[in-house]
């Protein structure tokens, strides 16, 4: 059971729920029951800089922060949510002027730890620009952290030098760093590629105010009927 199934059972208010995406697995998660039809299982959120994201491989594996606030759900849990191969990803972004943009990908799947949480992602639509499957695509990239360099880039460790040392699926260091440092409002003069970055909407010098990542099945049917 995930947030989409809870929505279809009649839950219409966003909040914390306990879900069981696979037999014998249970964890707490924030369910977004309002955005774009609801039913989203939120896997990442940045809102205020209260949680540091320059974490180790094991911390990204298990997750950190609080699901009520800023957090990374954990790569093991994201794998469990997406392992069937039918999940889509939605990224919601807000800048310091209050403007919003989004990106959706109709395929989003994370492999297990044995395969370094390799990312499968494609099928972009939205208003934020494609910062994950355009140039330097994240598709096919394993996850890297400041203590585990899997980016295949000979020059540097992307996780150590870019994105504020936050874990991500780096490929040639990439176009997006939603786990970067929370740099507050420095406009277009933030340190290059260190903040909460979605370069196709702003650029590498702009660090966003809010960002969230959420998943739900592609076959989710939006319903207005409460049980």
From TrEMBL:
SMART domains: FBG (SM00186). GO terms for cellular component: extracellular region. Keywords: Coiled coil, Disulfide bond, Glycoprotein, Secreted, Signal. It comes from the Eukaryota. It is found in: Secreted. The keyword Transferase does not apply. Its main location: secreted. PROSITE patterns: FIBRINOGEN_C_1, FIBRINOGEN_C_2. PANTHER family: FIBRINOGEN ALPHA CHAIN. This is Fibrinogen C-terminal domain-containing protein.
């Amino acid at each position: 059971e995930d947030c989409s199934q809870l929505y279809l059972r009649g839950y219409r208010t966003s909040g914390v729920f306990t879900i069981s995406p696979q037999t014998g697995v249970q964890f707490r998660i924030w369910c977004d029951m309002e955005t774009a039809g609801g039913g989203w299982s939120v896997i990442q959120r940045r809102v205020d800089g209260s949680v540091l994201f320059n974490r180790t491989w094991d911390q990204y594996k298990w997750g950190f922060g609080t699901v009520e606030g800023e957090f990374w759900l954990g790569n093991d849990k994201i794998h469990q949510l997406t392992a069937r191969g039918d999940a889509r990803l939605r990224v919601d972004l807000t800048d310091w002027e209050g403007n919003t943009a989004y990106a959706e990908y109709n395929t989003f799947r994370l492999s297990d730890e044995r395969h370094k949480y390799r990312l499968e992602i494609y099928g972009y639509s939205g208003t934020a620009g494609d910062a994950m499957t355009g140039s330097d695509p994240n598709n096919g990239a394993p996850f890297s952290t400041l203590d585990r360099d899997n980016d295949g880039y000979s020059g540097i460790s992307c996780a150590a030098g870019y994105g504020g040392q936050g874990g991500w699926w780096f490929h040639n260091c990439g176009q997006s760093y939603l786990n970067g440092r929370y740099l507050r409002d420095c406009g277009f003069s933030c340190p290059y590629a260190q903040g909460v970055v979605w370069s196709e909407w702003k650029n590498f010098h702009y660090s966003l105010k809010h960002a969230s990542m959420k998943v739900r099945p592609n076959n989710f049917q939006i319903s207005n009927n409460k049980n």
